[in-house]
Amino acid sequence: MNKLPKWVDVALIPFINLLLALIVSGLVILYIGESPFEAISIMVRGAVGSTYGWGYTLYYATNFIFTGLAVAVAFQARMFNIGGEGQAAIGSLGVALVCLAVPWPHWLIALPAAVIAGAIFGAAWAAIPAYLQAKRGSHIVITTIMFNFIASALLVYLLVNVMKPVGTMAPETGRFPPGTFLPDAYDMAGWVGLRFSRSAPLNITFFIAILCCVLVYLLIWRTRLGYQIRAFGQSESAAVYAGISPVRITMITMLISGGLAGLMGINAVMGEAERLVIDPVQGAGFVGIAVALMGRSHPAGVFLAGLLFGMLYQGGGELEFDIPAISREMILVIQALVILFTGAFDNMIRMPLERLFNRPGRGGGSPAKPMPPGEGTTHKPAVSEPEKS
Amino acid sequence: MAGTVTETQAGRPAESAAPAIELRGISKAFGPVQANKDISIRVMPGTIHGIIGENGAGKSTLMSILYGFYKADAGEIFINGEKTEIPDSQAAISAGIGMVFQHFKLVQNFSVLENVILGAEDGALLKPSKAKAREALKRLAAEYELQVDPDALIEEIGVGMQQRVEILKALYRQADILILDEPTGVLTPAEADHLFRILEGLKAQGKTIILITHKLREIMDVTDTVSVMRRGEMTATVQTSETDAEHLAELMVGRKVLLRVDKKPAAPGDTVLEIENLKVVDEDGVERLRGIDLHVRAGEILGIAGVAGNGQSEVLEVLGGITAAKGTVRINGQEIDLSGKSSDGQSRRARSIAHVPEDRQSLGLIMDFHAWENMIFGYHHDPAYQKNALLMDNAGIRAETQAKMERFDVRPPNPDLTARSFSGGNQQKIVCAREIERNPDLLLVGQPTRGVDIGAIEFIHNQIVGLRDQGKAVLLVSVELEEIMSLADRIAVMFDGRVMGERLPSETDERELGLLMAGITDTEAEHSVDEVAANLAKTQGKVG
Question: Which of A20, A165, B175, B233 is the most buried if burial means most Cβ atoms within 10 Å?
């Protein structure tokens, strides 16, 4: 089976998933006595109805694209990097250290330094679980989750005990020097003579995220390293046959993945907060998993899914503000439903569609029953010889 | 439901009785694939009826319909002359049909007895069922030469024994019609001969046997009647005594096929591969190779024969850089690293060793990669495949792949299809094209024609012989003795991690090789089948 036209795979299925999530969300809103149509119009208007809305939507999207790319790259090697949250937090720490340590004369110089620092810190945080997976066989899902907690605790410790300026109460660093301030959407719109909301956090990092999408595409589908990553992800035994070292590919892939997650710190810390706060990532690492799932681990898909989740976040915020009956928790429910339907329930939609698209031209039931052993189909299951256990 | 199934008559049907099985106009489609097209066949009672055809010809689909796994889109089934509906396997069993699958359906850690009664228990308590089955097994053993220890665990007995258990299972369920799907794939020649004697015994008792196989020799040896299938259609049904292997092969493939490999005598040159005292210990501490010595010269094919799991795979994996080992291996006189940092597939390829692995689907190909991606697999470090320092030359690789696919007759020659969408034979041609076109000094080939149709077998064999004739060394591992006999210039037989002996194809026969494969070196003496089977079973614990 598994033969779906490409447009169904990349467009129709995500769309149906999203629609189902919205329908169920609508029922929930109806249940608490509010109008789903009003709610959705508030969400859409809040997310894309003004430059202010766009400014927030794209800001969130930038975060999600970085963390989504991180998950997507790891998934090309069939590794499930759940540690985007921690890697982004440590990446943020790296960005903050660079911003605070040097009196940067201009953002154009500070930005490359921050990119390098964010990527290296994020990669370093992914390196330990990667090493444990590659050399010791510790499952990367478990270790990366655990490293999220360690990262969070480490950040709290550093902010409370080491990095907090003397005489302040808030567990955060002092404001970065002005030489590190990145141009925001208002500034950039001004360069080309446009007007944009002054108070939106969207900044130049958005373009770095787009650049990363392109680079990840080239890496995975156009380079030898990407070829090896994909081969390893598809079949480790075949990779070994071809002389591709599983240890090496595991390490490299996770370093790239962690580095991408770490870059999120540029947007959140350098671009928006301009200081390191106690939770700079705010769940974006986990949203990245949903973004990568929905985006089919393809950079273009990640970009679109990141955009969608940006809208959900910004629109949800507006909804919470405008309809008091819809609480913060209700927004989380809606976001969770989208993740649930696009990620976990994906096969629910996929299987009936596969059956629909593979139906023989006339009559005849669909081959729902599994094939018997032996021949019959054009391809056999991979390993079926009795000499190997 | 079961109510529609007619009871089978006990006892022996008369000579003039209706066919034991008659299928009329059976058709079955899976999506756009017509697996069975208007198939009619009559199997007379008390005969062995062979069904032969290439992989994908529709043999297994037809039997699955007969056994109730699939419902036919059209057609009728008659058992002993009565129209019968077979909606599920329970109905098939009550109609007196028993099936022995290619891959046994046995619970590994249950005893023989428990496996026999599984699903046919008489009540909630096992004890009475077991006692009854024990009696029945004793009777069946005496009647049909089907001796097994009822209390042995399945995982402790050999493959041949396990197959006997499968047959016993069917007989215990009162089967009068026995279907065997590729029964000899895992057996040594001696075991296969014994199986055929059992089948003869069953036939003499009036049972009807359907033998599904792709091996022409078996058909010629044991069947009374043979039906040939090709592309979902029944192309012919003939009396075995009135046909020959060449004619059957032609019916199977649809054109004339050369069954023997046409090759000149070898002209061996310098030694290319030398193996001395090679040892492999696996993760569980089991010695898989116990110190073997082999050599292959330029311009010759060394065939390694043996029952699957006796160390042949490990030889290939060590030489291919997949498994670490101890000992000495020299290529063109230079020693290669067997366990250190530079022991991997890349370093082997750098030494001009190419490897067509035994399991093409999990080693040799990435099934979801396109053909062009698979065509550089393992050779992806070749600078010729780079467009510049960073990017690969995907367009160039595509073009080269297309040319190679055309030279190796891969159908269709479309580099943008995934490996999965090709048939087994064409997948193997892709692997062979990739490895042979590198013009290696040493070609490692494992099971080159497993799951490959006859037409492609001929082609692949010719490519291997062609490489030999160019003065290259070939190391061939195959469980198909016929393949070894016809391709190899020298034959080494492996058993339990050792080389039991080397023979020249012209000076040996299947009987001698079969004994060596079971670890018996005094091949002049007489040996009983049970001795062979018992000897083989010793290695099974490690294999299963």
Answer: B175
